[in-house]
Amino acid sequence: MAREHRHVCCPARGALSGPAASRPHFLCKHEVLARAATGGKLSYLFDYMRDKMRKWREENYRNSEQIVDVGEELINEYASKLGDDIWIIYEQVMIAALDCSRDDLALFCLQELRRQFPGSHRVKRLTGMRFEAMERYDDAIQLYDRILQEDATNTAARKRKIAIRKAQGKNLEAIRELNEYLEQFVGDQEAWHELAELYINEHDYAKAAFCLEELMMTNPHNHLYCQQYAEVKYTQGGLENLELSRKYFAQALKLNNRNMRALFGLYMSASHIASNPKASAKMKKDNMKYASWAANQINRAYQFAGRSKKETKYSLKAVEDMLETLQITQS
After folding, report:
1. Cα–Cα distance for residue pair 238/122, rounded to 1 Å
2. How far apart (Å, rounded) are the C-alpha atoms in residues 89 and 187?
3. Do 131 and 34 meet the contact criterion of CB atoms below 8 Å apart?
4. Which residues form the TPR repeats (predicted)?
5. Of 7, 45, 3, 42, whose CA–CA distance to 24 is shortest?
6. Which residues, 6+ apart, have CB-to-CB distance to 167 below 8 Å?
């Protein structure tokens, strides 16, 4: 069921037909804040809103409700001042409107783009995304296939097809298409990471590890890739995988010493190695030290976060239990 939308900005006069055209004008919260910050001067207000949209666009923010609020106001009140920027704003607002179940606004933006750029593959892709939002997946796939017939190198259309397979729960088809895609575009890091996630969802950890290894080769300083690789190896189990897991959790911490997930991972992997009957005496002793160090660091982090919070007290108790368990095992 479509999510109910509370209209916060009026539609452009004459731009949208029907009941929306007669709605009263309400200031969006960003306009209220901007008017307060700029003393209510409309020229400054326009600059503020346009710059906000540009910042969100350039930094790939997914704050769809805010984009709809500000973008709709820009389109309604300042379209003539935007110049050529109006087209990229139409695209930005349309995608955000799909996120917010605002098909009226999405369709309006799409129609404006179609009039300006008839036959554009980029606009056709936006049409396909609207089909996806309406769950007309077959129509979307047919449209993307037509785009690919005209331009086989159109990566955006291929990725949209893969996204549809995921939305339909057809992970194996998505994996097959992603592998075919990566045969042609081997340097696409986003695709490698998506493939790793799909393999993890299918419990194919060996192939997920391979994808993450590809990512670490091109991004050796990305602590999140190291952490995720360590988690996959930990899940695979076995002494050799646990050792690799501990090493990569440690590497993730070296790259970002505030990565608490990696710190917990280091504790867990070292603890399991220390209690593994196949581990040598030296290996057990060393990993006991690593686990003890990690537990102490976790304890310090929670203490630093605040002693008065109830959640923190429970967390500290859990860490103290971890330390006590280590002491019992060591003795």
Report:
1. 48
2. 30
3. no
4. 189-222
5. 7
6. 132, 137
Give the residue carrying structure tokens 């930094």.
59
Number of H helices and number of E strands within the chain? 16, 0
Cα–Cα distance for residue pair 215/329, rounded to 1 Å: 37
User: Which sign, positive or negative, has the C-alpha torsion 152, 168, 229, 226?
Assistant: positive
- 202 inside domain: no
**Tens digit of each residue's pLDDT (9 = 90 or more) over 87-130:** 999 999 999 999 999 999 999 999 999 999 999 999 999 999 99
Query: How many domains does one find in the chain?
Result: 1
**CA 71 remoteness from chain centre:** 22
The angle, 0 to 180 degrees and rounded to 10, between the axes of the packed helices 223-236 and 189-201 is 20
Quick: pLDDT tens for 263-309: 999 999 999 999 999 999 999 999 999 999 999 898 888 877 765 55
Tell the residue number behind the tokens 């190291």, with chain if given.
226
Phi, psi (degrees; rounded to nearest 5) at 168: -85, -5
Q: How is residue 95 written in tokens?
A: 């995608």
Rounded Cα distance between 113 and 17, Å, is 18
In 3-state terms, the chain is what percent helix, strand and coil (to 5)?
A: 75, 0, 25
Tell me the pTM.
0.76
Helix H or strand E segment including 102: none
Residue 233 located in a structural domain? yes
Burial of 296 (0-12, 13-18, 19+ CB in 10 A): middle
Residue numbers of the domain that contains 292: 221-330
Per the CB < 8 A criterion, the answer to whether 252 and 226 are in contact is yes
Residue 138, in any domain of the structure: no
Token pair recorded at residue 265: 């991972």
Specify whether the CB–CB gap between 10 and 24 falls below 8 A.
yes
- Tell me the C-alpha to C-alpha distance, in Å, between residue 105 and each of 77, 136, 195: 15, 18, 33
What's the Rg (C-alpha) of the chain?
Answer: 26
Report the distance separating Cα 98 and Cα 107, nearest Å.
9
d(CA 245, CA 230): 4
